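Running this now, will post back.
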Amino acid sequence: MPPADTGASVVAVRSGASPLSSLPSSDDDQKLVPGGPGYRRTSLALFAAGVATFALLYSTQALLPAISDDLGVTPDQASWTVSAATGGLAVAVVPLSALSERYGRRTMMTASLCVAAVLSLLVPFAPSLGWLVGLRAVQGAALAGLPASAMAYLAEEVSARALIGAIGLFVAGNSLGGMSGRIVAGWAAQVGGWRTGLAAVGVMAVLCTVAFRALIPKARHFTPAAVSPRALARTVGGHLSDPLLRRLYAIGALFMTVFGAVYTVIGYRLAEAPFSLPQGVVGSIFLVYLVGTVSSAAAGKLVGRLGRRGALYLAMGTTTLGLLLSLTDSLVVVLAGLVLITAGFFAGHAVASSSVSRTAKTGRAQASALYQTAYYLGSSLGGTLGAMAFRSAGWDGTVVLGLAAMVAAGSITLYATRQALVARRTAARRA
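Update: finished.
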């Protein structure tokens, strides 16, 4: 979650196929099912893991104004505490997905959460911005082991007929973690400063890690496989040479650029005049994320009615309208704008991420891992550029950056639409 998200947790499965297709039907009856031993423990364990992962990943986002004031740094400098974490995850997700093939999903998830949780107890004591950014980068890289293993673990251990429900609970944990981490950090910071806010999130992550380790059953269907860097590079290169996949990666990154910019900077805007909201209330603004859960769920229906590109156009239009509304000085209208930005982002992200697996004919898991890389790089880029724009031109500058990203995404989608029309006309002439 992203923020909470429906596609950001899709990871590498040994065969490179989708989770459902990788399940051997002959073994399905021996796997976990609702009501059976282990299923509830597995679901709760991964729910706790999702909460910890996304609470930690964005833990500083609601605290950026306080970090700026305390450390005497500018918004764009403080934004690196978010961008470093998402950038670390983006760089590490593909390599760690490969390592999980060798050492096991459960082992990778445990190591990932333990390292990130230990770092979360050190982060509040960072003596300078440089140390804080460095620790956050390592923490983000450590967290990459969770999304790189969780979906593969579920695909291997849970019955196909129960897999969707188990994945749904994991995604719910992502969503709750992304939202609650910001809210807990915001209110704790109002009482004791930003370091207290980060410490509160760290304690929450440690408790979730302990719960995960206590609950997660041993893997019964995992078979270690040799990691072939050459084969992985060949698969990744094939995906990057596919024009449609490249467009989907770009669209996901551009949507996340908007989202990263808006939610990195919104705390500064709301803490300043004319709003002057306290830290706890600023943190509570992230309750708007609940809108994303609804719009993500509605994305499938939108695609059914409007087609993939039509749904993307609607998502871009919704996000653009929200950006324009956020320019006003009315708190109610700004909040309405945030609702539209959030709804548009989650809908667009859901359409783009789900389209990646449908587009890739082979190596679908690696294709999805590459989408995650683009997605989190977009988050890092958006957070940094959005804060730089805010420093130089205020909120108007951040909005201009968001609008430019939506224009770019719209241009890519329009190009794809025209290519599809040309292909249809060519096929009709040949027929």
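The CA atoms of residues 127 and 348 lie 39 Å apart. More later if anyone needs it.
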